[in-house]
């Protein structure tokens, strides 16, 4: 479904734009993904709307058939958000240890306390962190919008599957420019 509207109390959720992830092999130039996420964050902040910055600091404890990507400890700055995000004192920062930002965190409660009814999701990786966060938001009753040009993945097939098959079932999709344009109709 194409982007039609944003609720008056919409939050931006930026997933895993952190030093330990953005340096890896990604499908799209990470600088462009970061720039688009930053442009949205700036506009949300201008309007006094919540900006949620999410990082990941581990994995869920369950067994899987796939060997973990990493067994050594992460470097000291691995979880640090990229400085371009310009973290502000009013931003909500969530550290997760699962794919999605709502599981095992207080994100839902923090958004509900601010009367948020809709979320815009962007970041890395499309088929894991972004999709899981969007699914969890949808399951918690938030309206969901996905900024499709402000996300990327390491796997082309996962990125495309999420865009084509999953996201249209969770909410509306649009570009970061579409989202900023809809926000532009509001007074700063």
From TrEMBL:
InterPro entries: Isochorismatase-like_dom, Isochorismatase-like_hydrls, Isochorismatase-like_sf
Domain Isochorismatase-like: start-end pairs: 10-178
Pfam families assigned: Isochorismatase
Gene Ontology MF terms: hydrolase activity
Region forming the signal peptide: none
Designated name of the protein: Isochorismatase hydrolase
Keyword Endoplasmic reticulum among UniProt keywords: no
């Amino acid at each position: 479904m194409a982007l039609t509207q944003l609720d008056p109390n919409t939050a931006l959720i930026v997933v895993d734009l952190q030093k330990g992830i953005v340096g890896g092999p990604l499908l799209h130039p990470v600088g462009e993904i970061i720039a688009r996420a930053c442009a949205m964050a700036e506009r949300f902040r201008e309007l006094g709307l919540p900006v949620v910055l999410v990082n990941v600091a581990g994995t869920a404890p369950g067994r899987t058939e796939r060997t973990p990507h990493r067994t050594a400890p992460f470097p000291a700055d691995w979880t640090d958000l990229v400085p371009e995000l310009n973290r502000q004192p009013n931003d909500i920062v969530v550290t997760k240890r699962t794919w999605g930002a709502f599981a095992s965190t207080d994100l839902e409660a923090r958004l509900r306390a601010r009367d948020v009814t809709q979320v815009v999701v962007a970041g890395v990786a499309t088929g894991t962190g972004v999709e899981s966060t969007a699914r969890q938001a949808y399951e918690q009753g938030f309206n969901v919008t996905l900024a499709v040009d402000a996300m990327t993945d390491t796997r082309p097939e996962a990125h495309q599957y999420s865009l084509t098959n999953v996201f249209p079932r969770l909410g509306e999709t649009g570009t970061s420019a579409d989202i900023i344009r809809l926000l532009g109709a509001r007074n700063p």
